[in-house]
Amino acid sequence: MTELQGKVALVTGGSRGAGRGIALELARAGAYVYFTGRNAGSMQEGGERTLAGVLGEIHSFGGEGSYIRCDHTNDAETEAVIRQIAAEQGKLDILVNNVWGGNNLPIENKPFWELPAAHWDHMFNAGVRAQLMTNYYAIPLMRSEGAGAGTGKLIIHTTFWDQYKYVGNFYYDLSKNALVRMAYGLSLELAADGIAVIPLSPGWMRTELVLESMKTDEEHWQEVEELQASESTAYIGRAAVALAADPEVMQLTGRPQQVGSLAEKYGYTDTDGRRVPVFNIPE
């Protein structure tokens, strides 16, 4: 696949989960993919969950990319990532803001006053603010080639969104909707530059943490009843590729998009050939 040949992408939080799936699919589509995380490691130290492991996967199918170890709660490290990309590539076409620290505590559906206030630090400092500061340093580089519609530049914020339904955890709901609103504001400010900004919401993803909690793996998940409606992390990756390759993507800028709906629009499927429908919060 060469839809994104010649494009340079950055995926933050790319060593596991949605970030890993997106980094792999962008590379499969021909983009040169930079991806960040805190665990450089090696194939022997955590395998594919490390940055080195993901790079090994990219190289295994002939893709190109580089990893940069980065703690995105440290602004200097985030700025250094963008400086490195500018020095090595001179441009940035696709930015996927995926870094997220919100799973350090269980995300329980309890009243606000019964939840630990530490959720704020995890979800906002290591989530919302980390994505905001990545935008802060990356947007000047993305704008540097000149303004105008049709430039093919794209910023994605991975989030969760289901028609603004309340998700049940106050901090999670507030942080995920903050990312939706961040994308909307940026979409207005970057419209004249032809840079689309899209909040992208997956469904019930089989991340490493989910598979572990269900005591299964990606080869045996179909044996677990609770995972029958789940989707792989490649599914959101294919959504990101479809958006980045769409010459009319500016028509979607600022509007939350759900991976299942985009599958109907663009025609992609999950790794098992299914077109997984949109995940909806039960009424």
UniProtKB/TrEMBL annotation:
Organism from which the protein derives: Paenibacillus phytohabitans
Protein name: SDR family NAD(P)-dependent oxidoreductase
Gene3D superfamilies xrefs: NAD(P)-binding Rossmann-like Domain (3.40.50.720)
Entries under InterPro entries matching the protein: NAD(P)-bd_dom_sf, SDR_fam
UniProt xrefs under Pfam families: adh_short
